[in-house]
Task: structure prediction
Amino acid sequence: MNGKKILNEEKLIKRAINLLNAKFGPVETSRFLSITFNKRVESVKRHRIWQSKLDKEKFIKEIFS
Result:
């Protein structure tokens, strides 16, 4: 470790917002903070979704050609 103290969440958030604001301005900071991130889909479900959209014949040709 480098011996630095870990910031509590409130200080960390304030410093991060100040940095974003200084670098990008209030409008872009607000846009960034309002971004919603997609929830991660469980791997088996994600694979089944991928499989359902797959053209199996094309896929097999691409793999074995």
User: Anything to note?
Assistant: The chain has one domain: 9-64. The CA atoms of residues 24 and 30 lie 10 Å apart.
